[in-house]
Automatic annotation (TrEMBL):
Its EC number is 2.7.13.3. It catalyses: ATP + protein L-histidine = ADP + protein N-phospho-L-histidine. It comes from Streptomyces lydicus. SUPFAM superfamilies: ATPase domain of HSP90 chaperone/DNA topoisomerase II/histidine kinase. InterPro entries: HATPase_C_sf, HATPase_dom, His_kinase_dom, Sensor_HK_TwoCompSys, Sig_transdc_His_kin_sub3_dim/P. This is histidine kinase.
Length: 466
């Protein structure tokens, strides 16, 4: 029986077997093509084309500064370049003028389109280097980049670094270096190579400019975030204050609903001879009132915060009013603030919402005095109009006697925001602001009987801050 010949254990690898130099070259070529593709994309995709440098600056002089600098470089480098190329290097006058114009005039374009200006100036510099290889005056002089070309190119790098992203700047820098390395192959005899100088200078300028631009961008974003955060905090404070007011008014509305329920339930017993239809109607009114009261309690459960649920006490206490102002003033006096209280001679019985709003406005105003003007003399007055239509709440404090640390760092509400919301709730007006002597004034006009449409918007701002 014939057996096939065995294959040697260490047979040399033939074509297509094992790992030879072919796959490595293929990978290197693929990597090179990918790098060139990325380089072309970065060099061909400008950032914000047409937008001038410093275009978003408020100061008009700073907005004009890039144009003035570019114009100064252009008008100074153009005649200098013509003179250097024509007289020092011995280049034809017309050709020297054309090359110098191509190397300097695009600096004006660099204000709004620096990457496009780089393409023109870089191409003009390369063409100028090739032309200089055929003139006699290049021996002993700078090549491939004359001094004027280096100055213009570095100025262009400043504009590029302030506009383009980092990958584009790296692509520009590498292209500059590759052009310098290739120039070594055709360096004229006796010339002084300047491509290393330009390569280093352009890299330093690009790095410094990019660092400054990125730092400025980070600062602007931080300012924007702080502005957004401040607006969000103000909105959250407003919503929290509205929720707190809604929780407080629950007791007022619940009292009215309870009165309606009791009156409707007891009507058949208090009023004799009611028809059966009327008794059923009163029963329906009582049932509806009880359902509304239950819905309000469920709503209060949604509005009540977890912290309030844990503390428990304040939500269940009776809501304060004007009658409790003496006790409030007494506590403020104990905190070290001399307060004078003036109340109407005749008892005032405003609507519960107005009564609560008046008390809270005085409470917030006194809390602000404790926080911001400890020790300042303060006068609180509550008066009614002659026609009995409105209630005036006035809190005025003088300047603090001497600078000192605040006596209290936390308040019961959110200052002027809470005051504005409470005044808006009952359809009143609020006037606040600093006084010439360094004090502060809070004046609220509240209708004793708020109209049904009392939630009219107030002006966007009150003078002063809490």
């Amino acid at each position: 029986m014939n057996r096939p010949p065995s294959t040697p254990a260490h047979q040399p690898a033939g074509p297509g077997r094992g790992t030879g130099p072919g796959p490595a070259r293929a990978r290197a070529l693929r990597a090179a093509r990918q790098a060139l593709r990325v380089l072309a994309v970065e060099l061909g995709t400008p950032t914000e084309p047409g937008t001038p440098l410093f275009g978003n600056v408020q100061n008009p002089w700073l907005r004009r500064l890039p144009y003035l600098v570019a114009f100064a470089f252009a008008v100074s480098l153009l005649p200098s370049g013509i003179n250097v190329l024509g007289n020092d290097y011995g280049m034809n006058g017309g050709l020297a003028g054309a090359l110098s114009t191509a190397q300097t005039a695009p600096l004006l374009l660099a204000v709004s389109r620096p990457l496009q200006a780089w393409w023109v100036i870089f191409a003009a510099d390369v063409v100028g280097a090739l032309v200089l290889t055929g003139v006699d005056g290049v021996a002993g002089r700078a090549w491939p980049w004359p001094p004027t070309a280096i100055v213009g190119y570095v100025a262009l790098m400043v504009a590029l670094s302030l506009r383009e992203r980092r990958r584009t700047l790296i692509a520009v820098w590498l292209t500059t270096g590759v052009a310098g390395i290739l120039s070594e192959m055709i360096t004229p005899e006796g010339s002084q190579s300047t491509w290393v100088l330009l390569f280093v200078l352009s890299g330093v300028v690009l790095m410094m400019g990019a660092t400054l631009r990125e730092r400025g961008d980070a600062q602007r974003k931080l300012i924007e975030q702080e502005t957004i955060s401040e607006a969000e905090r103000a909105r959250r404070t407003l919503l929290e204050e509205r929720t707190r007011i809604a929780r407080e008014l629950h007791d007022v509305v619940a009292h009215h609903m309870s009165v309606i329920t009791v009156q409707a339930d007891s009507a058949p017993y208090r009023i004799g001879g009611l028809p059966r239809e009327a008794q059923e109607e009163f029963g329906s009114i009582a049932a509806t009132a009880r359902e509304s009261l239950a819905e309000m309690r469920r709503l209060l459960g949604v509005l009540r915060s977890e912290e309030t649920e844990r503390q428990g006490g304040p939500e269940k206490a009776p809501q304060p009013g004007i009658g409790m102002l003496p006790k409030l003033v007494e506590g403020t006096v104990r905190a070290g603030v001399p307060v004078e209280l003036v109340l109407p001679e005749e008892p005032v019985a405003p609507e519960p919402a107005v009564d609560l709003s008046a008390y809270r406005i005085v409470q917030e105003a006194l809390a602000n005095v404790v926080r911001h003007a400890p020790g300042a003399r303060t006068r609180v007055s509550v008066t009614t109009a002659a026609d009995g239509s409105r209630l005036t709440v006035l809190v005025v404090n003088s300047a603090p006697p001497a600078p000192s640390a605040p006596l209290e760092t936390t308040g019961t509400g959110h200052g002027l925001i809470g005051m504005r919301e409470r005044v808006r709730l009952v359809g009143g007006t609020l006037d606040t602001g600093p006084l010439p002597d360094g004090g502060f004034r809070v004046a609220a006009q509240l209708p004793l009987t708020p109209p049904p449409t009392a939630a009219a918007p107030l002006p966007a701002k009150d003078s002063g801050s809490a």
